[in-house]
Amino acid sequence: MNELSGKRALVTGGARRVGAEIARALGAAGMDVAVHYHSSAADAEAVCGEIAERGGRGWPIRGDLSDRDQARDVVTGAIEQLGGLDLLVLCAANFDHVPFDRIQDSHWDRALNVNLTAPFAMAHAARDALRASRGAIVLITCISRRAPYRDFLPYEVSKAGVHQLMRLLALELAPEVRVNAVAPGTVLPPDGWDEARIAKLAERIPLGRAGSAGDVASAVLHLARHDFMTGEELVVDGGRSLR
Fold first, then answer.
1. Annotated active-site positions, please?
2. How confident is the model at residue 125 (pLDDT cuts 50, 70, 90)?
3. Which domains does the chain have, with CATH numbers?
């Protein structure tokens, strides 16, 4: 197992929700963390402060990942700020709810650009730094690849693409760089959901509850530390995909 203390990470979407918990967990493990954000500057600063309280160091870094040039610039900026890179966690994504008959080109483009094109561009931009450190990439996929659901078609297609991207990156970047994924289920309900709706959703999960952002962060830490896993996806869904 790899020791993470003193190593350097970039977490996309690291200012809020699951990405923020991943960034905090990496900081608690002693890593220096570049916390990417788009519009949540205050949240990114707060996460960096929490990382410092947990013993690591954090730096906010802004970028609009719908623009692949900005996505590459985030990687370049993080490498310059951190002095290298040991771990790239590609968590940022949009999760647009849109019924099939209402899908427009903008929904499709937004999902593919942010959720799939940006991770490819960032992994490609980070390849030399990660090869030099014999580092790792962890992508966040989704259980919808195994158990699809209605009204999220652009999102689900993009995440299925991320799964295949992970497998191909694992081949292309071996043996120097390990590439794996975490596939969350219902680990953090969308903002605005009431308790009744969350409880109804939990009825479909064999373990009887929604998960937490910390469950995903723990899986990311496992993959970051494990030096004989590549091309694999850890499913963190309480068994939901079994149904």
1. 155
2. very high
3. 8-236 (3.40.50.720)
